[in-house]
């Protein structure tokens, strides 16, 4: 296993993003359509937050409780904005950060994705799944 491999070698480069103007319904559609669990939220070129599928699950507590769950979910989603639900105090890494350093960060924190930012511009995202896949390739 290479000790100094940069995170840029395993990160997702074509990042799906949201803006503060997007709806939570749009976010849910992106999560499901692309089979992903984290979406960076941008304002222009700057990353301002991270929305996770778990964030949506937390506010759609009624999901599955009522027979007409789509209507309930829509009502709940309309009560909140992406800015209210997303994580705001982000830790980011740059594309030269090593895989080992990212693994250490993710193992110590309670989140599962990090935005990759170079010169204040979002260039990728790395998740615990990316790290696990990298480790599996090594064996």
UniProtKB/TrEMBL annotation:
Keywords carried by this UniProt record: CBS domain
Keyword Ribonucleoprotein attributed: no
Organism for this UniProt entry: Aquimarina algicola
Gene3D superfamilies referenced in this protein's UniProt entry, alphabetically: CBS-domain
CDD domains attached to this UniProt entry: CBS_pair_AcuB_like (cd04584)
Domain CBS: 11-69, 86-139
PROSITE patterns (UniProt xref): CBS
Keyword DNA repair included in the entry's annotation: no
InterPro entries from the UniProt entry: CBS_dom (IPR000644), CBS_dom_sf (IPR046342), Diverse_CBS-Domain (IPR051257)
Protein name, as recorded: CBS domain-containing protein
Pfam families: CBS
């Amino acid at each position: 296993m290479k000790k100094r491999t940069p995170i840029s070698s395993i990160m997702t480069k074509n990042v799906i993003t949201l803006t503060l103007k997007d709806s939570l319904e749009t976010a849910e559609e992106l999560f499901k359509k692309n089979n992903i669990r984290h979406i960076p939220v941008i304002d222009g070129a700057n990353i301002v937050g991270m929305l996770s599928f778990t964030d949506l699950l937390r506010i759609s507590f009624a999901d599955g409780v009522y027979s007409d769950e789509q209507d309930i979910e829509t009502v709940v989603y309309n009560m909140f904005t992406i800015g209210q639900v997303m994580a705001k105090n982000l830790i980011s890494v740059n594309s030269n950060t090593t895989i080992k350093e990212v693994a250490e960060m993710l193992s110590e924190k309670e989140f599962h994705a990090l935005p990759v930012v170079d010169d204040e511009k979002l260039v990728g995202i790395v998740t615990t799944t990316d790290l696990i896949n990298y480790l599996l390739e090594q064996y």
